[in-house]
Amino acid sequence: MGDVICCPEQSTLILCEAFSASAALQVHFPDTERAEWLNKTVKHMWPFICQFIEKLFRETIEPAVRGANAHLSTFCFTRVDVGQQPLRVNGVKVYTENVDKRQIILDLQISFVGNCEIDLEIKRYFCRAGVKSIQIHGTMRVILEPLIGDMPLVGALSIFFLRKPLLEINWTGLTNLLDIPGLNGMTQCPPSIFGVLRIHFIEAQDLQGKDTYLKGLVKGKSDPYGIIRVGNQIFQSKIIKENLSPKWNEVYEALVYEHPGQELEIELFDEDPDKDDFLGSLMIDLIEVEKERLLDEWFTLDEVPKGKLHLKLEWLTLMPDAANLDKVLADIRADKDQAIDGLSSALLILYLDSARNLPSGKKMNSNPNPLVQMSVGHKAQESKIRYKTSEPVWEENFTFFIHNPKRQDLEVEVKDEQHQCSLGSLRIPLSQLLMSDNMTINQRFHLSNSGPNSTLKMKIALRVLHLEKQERPPDYQHSAQVKRPSVSKEGRKMPVKSQPSMSPGTSGSNTAPSTPGMGEDKPVREEKPQPPEASPLGHRDLGRSSSSLLASPSHVSAKEPTPSIASDISLPIATQELRQRLRQLENGTTLGQSPLGQIQLTIRHSSQRNKLIVVVHSCRNLIAFSEDGSDPYVRMYLLPDKRRSGRRKTHVAKKTLNPVFDQSFDFSVSLPEVQRRTLDVAVKNSGGFLSKDKGLLGKVLVALASEELAKGWTQWYDLTEDGTRPQVIT
To answer: Residue ranges of the C2 domain (predicted)?
Structure first.
């Protein structure tokens, strides 16, 4: 090893001779050990790991892809070769201090640089594509907990990356896939876009009054607003001051992606300077909206004793021709005004492929850092930056909601991010797409104000948003109408006056017709929505919002302080339903010690991670909601926090009264703080949107003030109707 010279002025080390690899590792990672023995083991096992991966691709992934879409029925992998270079573990860190004796924590610094050959073929369309290399670099944490005295000695295994790993995939023939009917929006619609949901957020009635005066002695009204979620698209309505029957009359449009379980989730809140109060929630299965096409209903709010919400939901299909465009334009009044904002008549789908022969920018003989800015009207989007290249490849998808394609243009500009100068631009009238085959253009476009041979390759398609109105008999009842106990006993019909409306983007001189159906008497819609999936708030505005009635723009909520769809502990209805079910089960007989069954939990606090760890193992002897049993899952809150982000939820176990979950969850909270909290655990039955068999199966409230929390425990708990007086099963 050579000499090390220390320069105090710069506080740096200058290496006169290179350190060995092991010494370098010790300098940068003093608490990380090399794992050459593990790498040798992985290398020896790599051929068998590759066999497992190939089997996984052919026996699991390939049939799943074939069944996902009729156009993929001839999909197959023609070659699966992960390469000869095995995954490498560059270092292992084992945590030994401040770690509970019932857990093992390891950090693995992994890297995989594989010259893969994964080829696929769709024979029906003579399409071939594949992956020729994959790179993954990151730190993977492995947690084994809790350690138990029975085989296999570990209760649960958690594996995750501490930070987002570096992932690079080198695709081949990707654009070939875009030419397959049904797989890309450039031919039918993007592979993941199922349709567009138009949400008329109209009004509410009989909301709770949350404002108080004189230190709570005098009750007032509320300042309600709504949060509307479709996937990761989030909209927030305007705030109506001092009103328990607010009228918003706003409209939002959101993309619906092609995967199961999507729901429209709405939460109402009372604006408060300190903490916004919860006013009710609603969950609607989008599959049912797609079936009905049009729903104009009053919905009873869930999780609160009273309140109703009036919504009109329109399911818009994506049509690849302009046959219905004039009718659509007339319906949204886009044929008579010059506005570029308002309700949408079409969806523009853009696939940005690549550019060639871009100019060097300000500096001669230097490659630019190109990016592409695209805009339609006031809506603009931007591609990723590609560094130091005059022939960038982006391969990105974008969507734009279009008010009137006959009058709007797509404007595209390629810019150099480093020098903030233009490398070329082009303008495409959307009316040009109306005259194109399948309303699609796929070509290299010559850039203006650029080099003589500078081109930009794009594939753009226009899809008309068509509402298919179905003929209904006079006595038709929506299939999505599910009954549940209603808090409001007075009157099943609520007359609603129609409201005047204005088209957005105008000064109010052009008046649009009132919303159809708003003047009719509507029965109170009674349905109990399925408990929501736990998911983080996403603020990426994939949809758009507009207001055809009051021209009030909506925006994405930038805060996340609001309570979630509240825990059912605040709602006596679920408890009453469960007690009634218990009386039915009893029917003159004496039920056992645990009539609702039991749940097994492991609970402990990790000082190393500063988190409360809860492992949901299993339940036993649950009550049956139907002849097929129950579809149970477990929902948890760490009270008093009932925000959306504080909810934890297991998967759903189908048709069983003795489900096994073995899922681990954590709550970020210190030990002194958690000992003042209560764990709210509810076992619920999951039913489809049309199912009546949804509700509470049992609850337990676990006080966390025990001094044994740092050590942890695994116990069975009796489930009760409201979670009180839980009996611990020793």
So the answer is: 180-299, 324-449, 595-717
